[in-house]
């Protein structure tokens, strides 16, 4: 993982964790800046100046100290290499959805359930016989058959 201050190029990132004081975490949460949200880096930080981000329709200037407290996953680094299917993710581990495979109807159904590109998914439970798999995404729990989960390609991330 890297912090927002360590990002050296413009582009989109997913917030994976916010460290810092309780007041900082609360203030950022009031803005909607919580785990799983996407921010776009418009201008990277120079030596001691802050960086400029685009978040939920607003441009925000972030100080270097605050940017050090925000851990992100660079979406520019999510390519087709190192992808694994969701059914092979270990219990209590997370991943970011990169691609959906399968028939057009299955892809549409998975997208209707909230499994879209750049969505953070955590494997919560697996049934005793391995099928179905319970996932947490977007604040709710979803159970999928293992055969359906095999069509979801993710990039493992420690979120």
Automatic annotation (TrEMBL):
<dbReference type="Pfam" id="PF04023">
    <property type="entry name" value="FeoA"/>
</dbReference>
<dbReference type="InterPro" id="IPR052713">
    <property type="entry name" value="FeoA"/>
</dbReference>
<dbReference type="InterPro" id="IPR007167">
    <property type="entry name" value="Fe-transptr_FeoA-like"/>
</dbReference>
<feature type="domain" description="Ferrous iron transporter FeoA-like">
    <location>
        <begin position="84"/>
        <end position="156"/>
    </location>
</feature>
<feature type="domain" description="Ferrous iron transporter FeoA-like">
    <location>
        <begin position="2"/>
        <end position="74"/>
    </location>
</feature>
<dbReference type="InterPro" id="IPR008988">
    <property type="entry name" value="Transcriptional_repressor_C"/>
</dbReference>
<dbReference type="InterPro" id="IPR038157">
    <property type="entry name" value="FeoA_core_dom"/>
</dbReference>
<keyword id="KW-0408">Iron</keyword>
<dbReference type="GO" id="GO:0046914">
    <property type="term" value="F:transition metal ion binding"/>
</dbReference>
<protein>
    <submittedName>
        <fullName>Fe2+ transport system protein A</fullName>
    </submittedName>
</protein>
């Amino acid at each position: 993982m890297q912090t927002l201050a360590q990002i050296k190029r413009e582009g989109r990132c997913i917030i994976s964790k916010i460290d810092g004081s309780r007041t900082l975490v609360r203030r950022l949460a009031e803005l909607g800046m919580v785990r799983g949200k996407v921010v776009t880096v418009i201008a990277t930080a120079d030596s001691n100046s802050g960086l400029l981000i685009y978040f939920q329709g607003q441009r925000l200037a972030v100080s270097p100290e605050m940017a050090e407290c925000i851990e992100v996953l660079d979406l520019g680094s999510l390519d087709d290499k190192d992808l694994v299917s969701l059914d092979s993710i270990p219990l209590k581990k997370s991943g970011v959805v990169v691609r959906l495979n399968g028939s057009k109807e299955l892809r549409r159904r998975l997208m209707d359930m909230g499994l879209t590109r750049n969505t953070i998914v955590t494997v919560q439970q697996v049934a005793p016989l391995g099928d179905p798999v319970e996932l947490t995404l977007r604040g709710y729990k979803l159970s999928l058959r293992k055969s359906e989960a095999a069509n979801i390609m993710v990039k493992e991330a420690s979120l």
